Amino acid sequence: MATQLYRVPTQNNLQTTLNAQMAQGASTCILATDLSGVVRLPGIFVVDRVDASGNKTPNAREYISFTGQSGTTLSGLTKGLGGSTDQLHNVGAIVEFVPDVVWEDAMHQVITHEHDVYGQHISLASLYVANTLNLAVPSNASIQREDVQNSFVHNALNTSGASLQGFQIRPVWALPGGASGPSVPMGVPLVMTDPGTISWISAVAQGPASQASLALTIRKNGVDILANSYLFMIPMNGTYISLASIATNTFNQGDVFTVGTSTASSMARDITIQMYAR
Q1: 176: cis peptide before it, omega within 30°?
Q2: H/E/C letters for each residue in 66-97?
Q3: Cβ pair 68, 31 in contact under 8 A
Q4: Tens digits of per-residue pLDDT, 101-130?
Q5: What three-state secondary structure class fits 219?
Q6: For the chain, what is the mean pLDDT?
Q7: Is residue 110 helix, strand or coil?
Q8: pTM of the full predicted structure?
Q9: CA distances from 186 to 19, 107, 265, 272 (A)
């Protein structure tokens, strides 16, 4: 069960007495004073902290929480809190509404559920939909980690130079004309601006590979990233190939990718090669 915050009364030094005996294990108690509008829920009180003469009575003292109030009756009692003992209290026992260790510990647990002891956010509650039309953002807010399942940005995402990871990277080589020879580099080299992991690659030709299958290569810094270049092959009379089995599927910022052919003339024309990574 989640820890709850306790409320304090609207008055300092609030004190009254029991108007009826409160038994051990009781769930309600009756006070001598109607505290409507004074106590707030849920709350905590201490009974028999002192006697009628003001003498401390540690053996009789008991801290109790409550969740309901109606007139002179407090209900939803949880007795024996803060190291005290659930016991019987007689008519006339002094009742006081004061902060205690249970009250303070509940506040600490609730706050540190999302903050560290210095007040910085360490986690955020799960949000299904967040409406940020009139969002007020503290100028010095600090969030250590935020997990968002779906986020929709309709205008601009200003990261102020922050490092963004996991975004889609889709290099594309558009190769007009025909592919007519083995080991022929095609297109221009592309430099990766961010690190990523390749999920799949594909190639599509406007004209079919009419004379032979067309095997394509993709190289990172001059080294083929495919375990077998003949896996990435547009078949004879075909125009499309997609491949997810990639031997070297990771890359770093600054790595250079090039594409080329590794088979003889196939007459495939106007080829587009695409790589999907994130």
Answers
A1: no
A2: ECEEECCEEECCEEEECCCCCCCECCCCEEEC
A3: no
A4: 998 999 988 888 888 888 888 765 555 555
A5: strand
A6: 84
A7: helix
A8: 0.49
A9: 94, 66, 14, 11
Q: Please, where are the H alpha helices in the chain?
A: 101-112
Tokens linked to 227: 């375990």
User: What gap in Å lies between CA 12 and CA 8, rounded to an integer?
Assistant: 9
The residue assigned the tokens 């820890």 is 3
Residue pLDDT, tens place only, 154-191: 777 676 666 666 667 788 888 777 665 555 667 789 99
Tallying the residues shown for the chain, one arrives at 278
Domains and CATH numbers, the chain: 15-107 (2.40.30), 172-277 (2.60.120.40)
In the 8-state DSSP scheme, what is residue 32? Answer: S
Residue type, 252: N
Would the pLDDT of 81 be above 90? yes
Calpha distance 191→171 (Å, rounded): 9
DSSP 261: E
